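Input structure tokens:
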């Protein structure tokens, strides 16, 4: 009966209004939300949206219902405005283009069946990767958002303790959080504004269900917050709010505990497959290449600089995809646009300040090192006579050649390179100069990352020091307010009680703005030029001060109670974060040792050994070839077994670039395990680790290479002279 009545009214409304607004509410999107979404989503995501929508217009693909539902869930989580059909269309069109264009180019231009097969393999892998790309984006979004969940509950609870309004509390949290969770919460509000849902509770409940598979504690905490709205007793309402924060803190710790226990095996697997086995496998490669014709340095580059880094990165992302809700920092330059200038290198010229993008410095330095490293092939191509003359002089004087270009050992015209081809460089100077290639990559990447983050990280570290002290300072401020002292005077009292501390400096700055500049409390805190928060950018401190401004309207006792509770919350969050860091300490320490020492040291030693083996194999190949030309028994047959070994120059470039790639990937993984999706910390760690570890690798490789080459030269000289 009730259903019939609803149906009749619906039909009547449709006749009079031409359709129900509610049935089309989901198509209506706020212009402000769209603008905020464009600002929040990275450029590669919006490019992916455009390519998917363009591919869908070219190719219509029917997606199975189960697969479409799962894919749509990932698209919704990542806020992607594409369809599953568009995702599948792109996953077929782009790989097909890569396979066809790459294979034809490889055969026609380079006559290389290897690269044709390579492009076919890449295209097939791309099909799988592109179909899983929405899942990757959703997991990445989940990792970033889960980092902010504890803070989001903190902001909502902090606001609702003094004002029991869920909609305003969610808006308060969205204002102080960084993307992506701020985008999620703003969409919750805008879904109510655009009448997709009738009220904030309904919109919030639908959003919370998207986290059911991963973060039940987040859902439970918000359900407790919602329950507090229906409590008539103030004491019971506050208990539910406190309980919600306790729930997410405790369950976060328990889930991170299990994650830390289960992390040892995947990290060991990653270390073995990504570092130990590939690097140790390099030792036997010179022998393999010498006895198996046709293997070139660019084949090794495809294996070590393309496939292995992709596999290691994929394994690392799988490890991160299981990371539970945790803690983490944000890039304060994203939250506070006024700090974006500190991402650049700043020069003061007179009273003006010049800002230069660090990309310019990194490109110039990287290009200089790269060009110096290319001197051996450039000199040989432009002036081979000069190169040969230098080699002859150093060979007579020191027993080794600087560049060492030689004629190929191949005698079969069917082999590549054909007989009579000049190959190299095998010389010691060329091998040493090749070390500048990984250094160019390391300084190009590392210098940019370091200069991009150095200034901002200092500001954030000062803010974090203030946050560590701020709980005690807030408690003192709350006590002064409870004594009946006006808020404007209480800041000065607390500053006098905490001299020589960052908190004391912050409170003193507020007091100075009030006393000397005649500002009100709000301006003394939030003025964009002289406000205290302009010098101490911190979302937690800013939110605490906004709670003070809101609650002071209800009287000093209410404000004192609010600040005391905020102080307690900050202490609880800090305590749990420290316990979580303790859980990860051993694993992170192991990964940092791999990044800082083990990987560059092992790789550097391997390059030195490889250089010695290449020198010995080259000398043996030359002597056996001479004996074979003289027709000494079966020696001519043995001579055919020796091929051309890969020059240490190219071999080192492959390994050196691989070291840079692995250090970069391990740094990203270690930072994400320790701090979650912290782009600023990741950038700063990359700037430190990539430069430092690559320099260590180059120093070790240089020392071992020189020592082992001199040993090989002495051995070969003594052997040949004795014979």
């Amino acid at each position: 009966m009730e259903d019939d009545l609803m149906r009749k009214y619906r039909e009547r409304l449709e006749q009079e209004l031409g359709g129900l607004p509610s049935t089309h509410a989901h198509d209506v999107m706020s212009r402000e939300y769209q603008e905020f979404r464009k600002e929040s989503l990275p450029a590669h995501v919006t490019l992916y949206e455009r390519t998917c929508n363009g591919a869908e217009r070219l190719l219509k693909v029917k997606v199975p219902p189960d697969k479409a539902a799962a894919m749509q869930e990932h698209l919704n989580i990542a806020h992607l405005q594409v369809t599953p059909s568009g995702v599948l269309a792109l996953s077929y069109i782009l790989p097909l283009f890569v396979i066809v264009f790459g294979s034809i180019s490889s055969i026609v231009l380079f006559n290389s069946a290897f690269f044709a097969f390579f492009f076919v393999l890449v295209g097939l892998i791309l099909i799988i990767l592109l179909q899983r790309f929405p899942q990757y984006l959703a997991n990445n979004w989940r990792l970033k958002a889960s980092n902010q969940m504890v803070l989001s509950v903190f902001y909502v609870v902090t606001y609702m303790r003094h004002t029991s309004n869920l909609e305003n509390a969610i808006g308060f949290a969205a204002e102080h959080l960084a993307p992506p969770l701020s985008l999620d919460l703003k969409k919750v509000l805008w879904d109510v504004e655009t009448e997709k849902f009738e009220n904030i509770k309904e919109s919030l409940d639908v959003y919370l269900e998207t986290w059911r598979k991963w973060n039940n504690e987040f859902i439970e905490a918000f359900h407790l917050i919602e329950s507090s709205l229906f409590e008539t007793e103030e004491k019971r309402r506050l208990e539910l709010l406190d309980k919600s924060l306790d729930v997410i803190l405790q369950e976060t710790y328990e889930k991170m505990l299990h994650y830390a226990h289960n992390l040892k095996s995947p990290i060991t697997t990653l270390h073995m497959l990504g570092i130990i086995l590939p690097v140790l496998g390099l030792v036997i490669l010179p022998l393999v290449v010498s006895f198996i014709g046709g293997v070139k340095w660019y084949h090794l580059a495809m294996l070590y600089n393309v496939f292995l880094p992709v596999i290691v990165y994929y394994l690392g992302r799988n490890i991160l995809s299981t990371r539970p809700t945790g803690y983490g920092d944000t890039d304060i330059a994203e939250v506070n646009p006024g700090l974006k200038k500190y991402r650049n290198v700043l020069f003061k010229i007179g009273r003006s300040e010049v800002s230069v993008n660090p990309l310019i410095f990194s490109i110039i330095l990287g290009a200089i090192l790269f060009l110096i490293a290319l001197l051996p092939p450039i000199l040989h191509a432009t002036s081979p006579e000069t190169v040969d003359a230098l080699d002859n002089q150093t060979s007579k004087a020191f027993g080794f050649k600087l560049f060492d270009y030689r004629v190929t050992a191949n005698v079969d015209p069917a082999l590549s390179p054909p007989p009579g081809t000049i190959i190299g460089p095998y010389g010691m100077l060329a091998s040493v100069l090749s070390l500048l290639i990984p250094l160019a990559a390391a300084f190009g990447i590392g210098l940019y990352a370091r200069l991009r983050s150095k200034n901002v990280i200092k500001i954030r570290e000062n803010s974090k020091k203030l946050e560590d002290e701020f709980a005690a300072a807030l408690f003192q401020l709350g006590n002064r307010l409870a004594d009946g002292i006006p808020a404007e005077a209480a800041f000065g009292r607390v500053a006098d009680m905490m001299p020589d501390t960052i908190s004391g400096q912050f409170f003193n700055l507020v007091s100075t703005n009030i006393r000397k500049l005649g500002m009100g409390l709000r301006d003394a805190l939030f003025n964009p030029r002289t406000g205290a928060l302009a010098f101490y950018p911190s979302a937690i401190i800013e939110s605490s001060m906004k709670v003070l401004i809101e609650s002071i309207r209800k009287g000093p006792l209410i404000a004192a109670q609010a600040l005391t509770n905020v102080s307690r919350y900050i202490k609880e969050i800090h305590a749990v974060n420290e316990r979580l860091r303790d859980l990860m300490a051993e694993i992170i320490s192991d990964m940092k040792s791999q990044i800082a020492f083990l990987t560059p040291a092992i790789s550097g030693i391997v390059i030195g050994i490889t250089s010695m083996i290449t020198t010995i194999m080259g000398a043996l190949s030359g002597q056996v070839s001479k004996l074979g030309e003289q027709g000494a028994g079966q020696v001519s047959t043995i001579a055919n077994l020796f091929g051309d070994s890969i020059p240490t120059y190219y071999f080192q470039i492959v390994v050196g670039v691989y070291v840079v790639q692995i250090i970069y990937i391990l740094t990203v993984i270690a930072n994400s395990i320790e701090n979650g999706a912290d782009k600023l910390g990741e950038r700063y760690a990359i700037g430190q680790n990539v430069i430092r570890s690559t320099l260590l690798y180059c120093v070790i490789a240089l020392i071992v290479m020189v020592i082992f080459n001199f040993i090989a030269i002495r051995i070969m000289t003594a052997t040949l002279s004795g014979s």
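Strands lie at 345-349, 352-356, 406-407, 422-423. Residues 13-30 have pLDDT under 50 and may be disordered.
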